[in-house]
């Protein structure tokens, strides 16, 4: 069953809870389709008077902020062994190449990686745990986490809600265009991420193979 169709069968309170829970678990480090659930719920709110977009956005923001904070605490306590364990459990999401790509983003951007990571699928899962593993000061993490969570969750809800209200009839008539666009965007993102991951993996393997200079 389609996500939006399923959400349409449950009470509004359950929609808020599901959105907050799924986004919270994804932010914590569990690879779940948080963005898909949020977009589906926001579109539902534009067509269903019982689902309030303001409450929906607030629940999504809360889930994102709390989930990231728990992920940070787990990463800070578990350290790098946690990343190795996640790599064994979820190799498609926490492989060495993915970790290397995320680490380079954190080294380059710092707290901005947490903020902008909310808008990128890979970093959205990594941001909290990796910030904890890398011992980012919590106050920096919290500022980026709160601002990024509110802007991503609230902004996504608002945009999809108003698009649904204004263009509902158009979307129904030309839904295949949206499907084609979504497929093309998804394939492009997947190919770019795959290429970056392959480069990062190759770089890591090359670094491991380089001989360590002898110490006199």
Describe this structure in words.
With 216 residues, this protein is mostly helical. 84% of the residues lie in helices and 0% in strands. The chain is globular, with a radius of gyration of 19 Å. The mean pLDDT is 76.
Short description:
The chain has helices at 3-7, 12-28, 34-47, 53-89, 91-94, 96-109, 111-117, 121-133, 138-173, 175-209.
SSE topology:
Blueprint: H1 3-7, H2 12-28, H3 34-47, H4 53-89, H5 91-94, H6 96-109, H7 111-117, H8 121-133, H9 138-173, H10 175-209
Helix pairs in contact: 2-3, 2-4, 3-4, 3-9, 4-8, 4-9, 6-7, 6-8, 6-10, 7-8, 7-9
Residue stretches low in confidence (pLDDT < 50, at least 5 long) are: none
- Spatial gap, N to C terminus: 67 Å
Shape: globular
Structural class: mainly alpha
Tell me the series of helices and strands, N- to C-terminal: HHHHHHHHHH
Cα-based radius of gyration, to the nearest Å: 19 Å
Number of beta-strand segments: 0
Strand content: under 5%
Give the % helix.
over 70%
**Largest sheet composition:** none
The number of helices is 10
Mean pLDDT: 76
Sum up the structure in keywords.
216 residues; mainly alpha; single chain; globular; 10 helices
């Amino acid at each position: 069953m389609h996500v939006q169709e399923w959400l349409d069968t449950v009470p509004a309170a359950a929609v808020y809870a599901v959105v907050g829970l799924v986004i919270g678990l994804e932010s914590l480090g569990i690879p779940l389709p948080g963005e898909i659930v949020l977009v589906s719920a926001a579109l539902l709110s534009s067509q269903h008077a019982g689902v309030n977009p303001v409450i929906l956005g607030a629940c999504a923001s809360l889930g994102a902020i709390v989930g990231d904070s728990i992920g940070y605490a787990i990463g800070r306590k578990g350290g790098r062994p946690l990343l190795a364990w996640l790599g064994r459990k979820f190799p498609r999401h926490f492989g060495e190449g993915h970790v290397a790509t995320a680490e380079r983003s954190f080294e380059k951007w710092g707290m901005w990686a947490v903020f902008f990571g909310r808008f990128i699928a890979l970093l959205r899962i990594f941001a909290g745990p990796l910030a904890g593993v890398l011992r980012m000061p919590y106050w920096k993490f919290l500022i980026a986490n709160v601002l990024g969570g509110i802007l991503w969750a609230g902004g996504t809800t608002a945009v999809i809600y108003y698009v649904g209200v204004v263009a509902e009839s158009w979307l129904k008539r030309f839904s295949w265009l949206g499907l084609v666009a979504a497929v093309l965007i998804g394939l492009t993102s997947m190919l770019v991420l795959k290429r970056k991951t392959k480069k990062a993996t190759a770089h890591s393997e090359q670094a491991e193979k380089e001989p360590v200079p002898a110490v006199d």
